[in-house]
Specification:
Distance between the termini: 33 Å
Strand content: 15-25%
Shape: globular
Strand order of the largest sheet: 1-3-2-4-5-6-7-9-8
Largest sheet: 9 strands, mixed
Radius of gyration: 17 Å
């Protein structure tokens, strides 16, 4: 829970837990199967330039995440991570799917979530507590490799959806309700 939302590397836990990497992976599978954590696998096809095997792991509940991180009072910088958790929970709950991925290249460019339905272009989702915090660089890197599909920013302070263009990439800024509606199409 302390590392919730981060890339999970099983080998980091083998020595402190005094168990094998396989055992750690099996424990993680049990936590995922019982919905204590959500495992988000990477989206990507190029082993040379993209992260294609290391999952991200999210705690099932933002309250537990806050407790384990020792957050008694929330600071502004905590809100983005909690918003990302909340968005993931809503996507999975409303769409009844656990087929949500993330994207990261080996240079550190990352998109929070990718929804890639079979036969449809990938929808990439950036979660921002405030729309003003959005930096299009990571999204541009993703769209260089995967040019087709919707590019969405879901922000807590968006009341009405709007669209902006960043060097040929159209980005739609939405609230959580509109995000779910777009993904249901």
């Amino acid at each position: 829970m302390v590392q919730s939302g981060g890339i999970f590397e099983a080998t980091r836990f083998t020595t402190p837990c005094e168990v094998s990497r396989t055992t750690i992976s099996n424990y993680l599978s049990v936590l995922d199967a019982t919905y204590v954590v959500h495992i988000i696998r990477p989206f990507g096809k190029s082993k040379a330039s993209e992260i294609v095997s290391a999952p991200k792991v999210y705690g099932f509940d933002t309250g537990f995440v806050c407790y384990y991180r020792g957050w008694r009072e929330l600071r502004r910088e905590d809100m983005g991570l909690l918003w990302e958790h909340y968005v993931l929970n809503e996507i999975q709950g409303c769409l009844q799917t656990r087929n949500v991925l993330y994207w990261r290249d080996k240079r550190g460019h990352e998109n929070d979530f990718v929804v890639a339905e079979r036969g449809r272009p990938p929808v990439t989702i950036e979660c921002k507590w405030s729309a003003a915090e959005f930096d299009p660089d990571n999204l541009k890197r993703f769209r260089e490799r995967y040019p087709e599909g919707d590019s969405l920013v879901v922000a807590a302070d968006v009341d009405k959806s709007f669209t902006r263009r960043y060097k040929g990439i159209e980005v739609e800024f939405v609230n959580l309700t509109d995000l779910i509606n777009v993904l249901k199409k």
